[in-house]
Amino acid sequence: MRKILFLIILLILSNCSFDDKTGIWNNKNSVLTSKKENRFKDFKKLYTKEESFDEIITPSEDLNVSVSKIKVNLKWTDEFYNDSNNLDNFSYKNQNQLIFKSKKLSKYKVNEKILFDGENIIINDQKGNIVVYSVEKQQIVYKYNFYKKRYRKLKKNLNIIIEDRIIYVADNIGYFYSLNYKTKKLLWAKNYKIPFRSNIKIFENKIIIADQDNTFYVLNKFSGERLKIIPTESVNLKNEFISSLALDNNSFFFLNTYGSLYSINSQNQKIQWFTNFNQSLDLNSGNLFYSNAILAHNDKVLVSTDPYLYVLNSDTGMIISKNSITSIVKPIISQQGLFLITKDNLLVYKKLNSEKIIYSINITEKIASYLDTKKKSISVKSFFIVNNDLFVFLENSYLVKFSKEGKIKKINKLPDKLGTLPILISNSIIYLNKKNKLIILD
Q1: Contacts of residue 71, Cβ cutoff 8 Å, sequence gap at least 6
Q2: What is the mean pLDDT of the chain?
Q3: Total-model pTM
Q4: 364 and 377 Cβ atoms separated by less than 8 Å
């Protein structure tokens, strides 16, 4: 009997390790693992014989990666941070200490993208509530709901952007409205009767957005009146991808759900060029298109689709490079290179002007080696350049820090669980936790 008991205990211990106690790995049956494995389940692989990139390329010992200068960021008024959708090299105190936790800001499911205007956190929830929370006063200073009783039971998907204390809101019902949250007044509201399905950008006195039929709108910022529409290819089947918009000094860039990228002159709103990245030209095809948000950087546009990563000349639309890589999060361009994380959890750094990959490392293997344990699964939530390092936030609220040369430096468990995507403001990390409480870390 003692021998049997000893064998049972030995078997249990052999399957236990330090990493199970830390909680950094996903449970094999967890929702997170299921989500990651099924993220691309809607896409039929009928269009390519080329295998997605999965090669390990070890960084050279003398590698010195150049990134942009560290920036102390003060605002986050666009869901993708700025006009180009690209991220900076953010400053952070790096102490991983909880310095503030608020009361619950909403009892409903909150949009995972939060905004900050320099003083207030702005969130919205699936009931259509817009909540303005003052960090200094530590209280909700304004709460607004546009919707009447007939729409109260509908789940609202709000896309918002902020400029000069004014929130511009487009929804999945077809409404677009403008709200001054300082004076607490609705400035204007329009019902376009077709659900909007893109992020919002503001250029001078114009607003640009797209609807679910892939119609591109240019609106008057002060009245909401339609200045111009550009119909593009519509698709019958819908997936999680929403149309993506970005700006540079001279152009609007519009990637629709069919996979076509349009360059539109920002002054006269005429199409300059367009190209298609969908491997099937059948409008009714089950081959659904997927991409991360497009990036505009200097004279280039980056389109990260499944299954290819494209870098284009923004003036001509000519393809500069094309790699068979699918990034699970929005890539980051910094100086003459770009960082991305593949759906196989490879951290990749490549040259921006060519197809050359400088390094490709397996994040899960690096974590396992760092913890001296067996490799298991992880799910990446978001990705930043911070203090010249690469910060990889995991769905289970761990933060894995890599040097820009691809060497793991530290793993931190966040003091509170991630409920929304984090943003970096004034040397701090800010997000809402699972209970919709505002968290600020230094």
Answers
A1: 88, 89, 90, 91
A2: 90
A3: 0.90
A4: yes
